[in-house]
Amino acid sequence: MAFVGHLVGTRIEHAAAASAGEAAALYMEAFLEPYVQELATDNELSPASVHGIDRLHNSTSLSKHIVSVKIWSADARILYSNDKSQLNQTFPHEEVARAMRGEIVTRLTPLGDDENHFEEDFDQPLYETYAPLRQFDTDRVLAVGEFYEQKHEIETLQQEVWAVISAATLAMLLLLFYIVRRGDLIIDRQQVALRKQMQEQEQLHRQNASLQQKITAANHEFARIGELTQRRLGADLHDGPAQLLTLILLRLDELSEWRPQPQPAAELDGDDALETIRGAAKDALRQVRNLSSGLALPELNDLSLTDELILAAHRHQQRTQSQVLLDIADLPEQMPPLHKIALYRFVEESLNNAFRHADGQGQRVSARCSNGLLTVEVCDSGPGFDPDTPINGTRGRSPLGLAGMRYRIESLGGSFKVDSSPGKGTRVSVQFEV
């Protein structure tokens, strides 16, 4: 608003200056030009002309506003002035030169000029107007007239403008105060409501955290029970069907030793049946032992995580006669037993998938721990697959195997990720916070 007031005041001042210049030019044309016509043939004003200008200035009502009059020659010499001490003095003046070219020049009186000592005694701002004085019936400029006009009306108008702007500013400030105050009250009410909602959400968060802890504990217990169940099944298979199959094989061996030699030709078919039974029993025993060894893990409590991963890779190499590259950095020494079992199962299942679906190409196990995050990856350079495409047939990754690994890892609070695309191999990774 101060800028607007200054701008309006400046515009008023400029408009008033232009108006004063036009009025002064008309005054000079009407009243002063008759006294300067003699300058067409002479370089000085006659005493009669000087006396006439003095009488004109003192007798008219313009003397209330016009405090001083000067007439300049073309060479910037003062031919007439209310201050008689300045007569015939020459001052370098750009405004006089411009007026001689036919321009009307209006400005505020500059303080300190040598030619303005008389006007400075009035101690008030004055408009200074320069206008050309022409010869009758021609455009020839004979001299330059200069008026000094008071500025009282402009100051009054500017004061009125500032009063209006001040009143408008005060009204705007009161309106803004009302708006801001009302907004402040609304914000206070909203803050109270938000604090109440935050308290309710904090209570819900505590309840959710408690439920999450219970779910995590239940998942851990489920994983523990599942692992115990697998161990019990492995033990039952080893101690039950495996022992019975072993007994069958022993009895078959006794029967083959008891049979007298040589055997009649008629009994050759019986020997073939005996060998078939023995082969089937051996295959069944081998499968039962494989199942029991897969369900019953080796003792992992005494192994470090690094040794456990090495063991999983070594057992896979022994079973499949394939090569597994290991890239294992510094890993934490202590891990919860369930986490160690989950990682062992993850590496075991992932390597089995790599051997089954990628023919063991580019099998690699990498593990590292950085910034409190344990990452274990199993990669291969096989044909790969699209994880987002439903899996059909025997060559794709087993959906149950991947789902089982994901559930086992996520039930312990870890994250499971499969990164694969056709022709670019497969990378399966898990992460745990340690």
TrEMBL record:
The keyword Iron applies. It is found in: Cytoplasm. GO terms for molecular function: kinase activity. Keywords: 4Fe-4S, ATP-binding, Coiled coil, Cytoplasm, Iron, Iron-sulfur, Kinase, Membrane, Metal-binding, Nucleotide-binding, Phosphoprotein, Transferase, Transmembrane, Transmembrane helix, Two-component regulatory system. The chain crosses the membrane at residues 161-180. It comes from the Bacteria. This is Oxygen sensor histidine kinase NreB. It comes from Zestomonas insulae.
